[in-house]
Please model this.
Amino acid sequence: MANINQIKKDYQQIVDKHSPKNKVVTNSIKAFFVGGLICTLGQLLINLYMYFGLSFYESTTLATDSLIFISFVVTAFNVYDNIGKVGGAGALVPITGFANSMVSAAMEYKKEGYIYGMGAKLFTIAGPVIVFGTIASVVIGIIYYFV
Amino acid sequence: MGHLGKQTIAYKTPPVITCAYSSVGPKEGQGPMGKYFDHICKDELLGEDSWEKAEARLIQTTIQGLLDRASKTPHDIQYIFAGDLENQVIASTFGVKDFNIPFFGLYGACSTMGESMCLASMAIAGGMADLVIAGTSSHNAAAEKQFRFPLEYAGQRTETQTWTTTASGFVTISRCGDGPKITAITPGKIVDLGVKDSFNMGAAMAPAAVDSILIHLEDTHQKPSDFDAIITGDLGNCGVDIAIDVAKRLGTDLSGVLMDCGKMMYDDEIQGTNSGGSGCGCIASIFTGYFYKQLMARKLKKILLVPTGALMSPGSTQQGNTIPGIAHAVCIEMK
Model:
């Protein structure tokens, strides 16, 4: 009788043959423009704040805070995930993506309470970024010190 | 009742599916199968304040709809066989709780409709009960939260990914009465060909589906053309192609007779569901909403229902485990 395990060695090949590939080129182009748009918005904010008389340093800090705030609001109104569907990494890599990962977790786990739910799981997605970001900064800091 | 061949049971007095009821979420209601479902919920929360409670409400709504349609009260039902995708099958627990019916909580991932119908029909055919309920559900947001990411997280979906349906389907199975009969079942075994990609569940489940289908055909000495349709649960667009290819390599042509509820559920281009639908509720709602009615109208005479499940947990895939599949085949005939 037919034994399913006899195709095991060819199976990955069968899967690859029938599984549609992710559209890497179109996705990359979309990510480029979505990410670029978010960064342009950041630049616009910097220019705006400088126009109102803030220093460059103050303006960049405030622009970052503003982008985070905008991402909070847009996520809360169930829109940012749609930007992510189109923009992919273009929506995830900027600071707005980081904010989205925290707000979305907060929204999702709030139902399990503010301590064990939202508090504990707020960094479900953002956690690794902070951990490895911190480690990377320490490593680079040490290299910088000696070079 | 008799055991047949390797892993099939053929019923001498086949249990009857006397009634069926389906409930779905708004997205499923807007899809191409929308007009067949018995109840379409207005929103994904169903008036509750969490996804988990919403799924429990979905189950309760479906069972109540089923009881009303069958003109039965919970007292008439001896057992209920149900399960879902949530941890500790908690949606079924809360959905079934207030009916006060003895409850078997099942987990077969998305194959639960098959598992529940197999066990329910065995209870009836074995003379242990006269009237039981079997069914299952899934909820998109509850499943996303548990298995993937928070709902509003801006992740991008892969082309092979399927959309977990918000849907539920329940049936009453009786010793006697009118309706399509469960004439034979082939409970599936766990099949693992080494797929590790949790974004390609169709690939993980296709071998299990083919295995159960081929064993059912062999045990009952039938060929695919003896069925009006062989219906898998949620292989999705690419999963179906994989299943047909695998079956062909093993010497059986399933093209033309193999249908997949995941493929039928959505308009993938418009609804952005990529490879189709998935989840326990996918085949549960399409069987109870569409195929059951086709059988009752005698537009279909004989089908093989093959709900398919991917047996994994977020932890198991993160630890690098493969994703084993399972599929239970249920032969349903309308005389």
